[in-house]
Specification:
276 residues; alpha/beta; 3-stranded mixed β-sheet; binds arginine
Length: 276
């Protein structure tokens, strides 16, 4: 990765407080319904994450929490937007299906967004990442566990951006955002073994200077980060990943998110980036 001054860019995010957060079903290997969740602690940790983003000067919109939708806190899964075009989500599991309409209402009630309802299963920013300065504006997308391959083509038609399909192979890293992160507008960090051998070769060709994470980094949800191009907000448990981030010239900001990890998510899952 070429070491230049890491410049932040102002962002707009969407988050939803974990007021009704529990682990009452298990749809990924991290979820254990027998271990109780401390919802009050989850809320406290979530507020610190929100203030961390606000302190950096970013805008954070808040989606109202809904009883019966414990995973709505993982706001990244609700849609994927690029330049005002919004590709809506369609959840794989019935337990989360109703979340899509909550996000759709958010975009449709605001001026300036062009919302498209998807025909194919896709979990929004969980499986889509955008790199505005790489290859003229590239969308990286994951498939294998949640988002269907057909949704990648659909996203390309909705967004008018090249969408590159990457095959996820490890159930622990079931969404792209658990295995790969955009550090800024052109650089990525990823954990190679979360991808098929061919997808690893594709990533190595496109991103020869990428930051490489190891299994421990990924298991600490160190790739589930939110970066503004300079400040990298990541799970406090991912100390080694924070070191890699710092060595590459970025500024890591660790946050404690122990409770959200019980649902199989961390910083990035809780934060959707809105690209008007
Ligand atoms: N419990 C949620 C699920 O399994 C966690 C979603 C995490 N979100 C993410 N963007 N990776 O669907």
């Amino acid at each position: 990765m070429i070491q230049t001054e890491r410049m932040p860019r102002n962002r707009t995010y969407l988050m939803c407080p974990p007021e009704h957060f529990t682990v009452e079903y298990a749809i990924n290997p991290w979820m254990d319904t027998t271990v109780p969740v401390d919802t009050a602690l989850a809320l406290k940790q979530w507020e610190i994450l929100r203030y961390t983003l606000l302190d950096l000067g970013h805008t954070v919109h808040v989606l109202e929490a809904q009883p019966g939708l414990p995973d709505l806190v993982y706001a990244a899964n609700g849609a994927f937007s690029v330049d005002g075009a919004v590709y809506g989500a369609r959840f794989k599991h019935p337990q989360r299906a109703a979340e899509a309409a909550v996000h759709e209402r958010f975009y449709r009630s605001r001026a300036g967004w062009r919302f498209t309802s998807p025909a194919h299963v896709n979990e929004g920013e969980g499986d889509f990442a955008y790199l505005p300065d790489a290859y003229g504006g590239l969308v990286l997308s994951g498939y294998g566990f949640r988002t269907e391959l057909a949704a990648h083509a659909e996203a390309q038609e909705v967004l008018g951006r090249p969408v590159l399909s990457l095959c996820l192979v490890d159930p622990a890293f079931y969404h792209l955002d658990t295995a790969l992160a955009a550090l800024d507008d052109r650089n990525v960090a990823y954990y190679p073994d979360a991808f098929s051998p061919a997808s690893q070769r594709v990533l190595a060709r496109l991103f020869p200077d990428a930051m490489i994470a190891d299994r421990a980094d990924a298991e600490a949800f160190g790739l589930n980060l939110v970066s503004d191009g300079r400040h990298v907000v990541l799970n406090a448990e991912a100390a080694a990943m924070a070191g890699k981030v710092r060595a590459a010239g970025y500024h890591p900001l660790p946050v404690e998110l122990s409770e959200l990890k019980r649902g199989g998510g961390s910083v990035k899952c809780a934060v959707a980036e809105l690209r008007p």
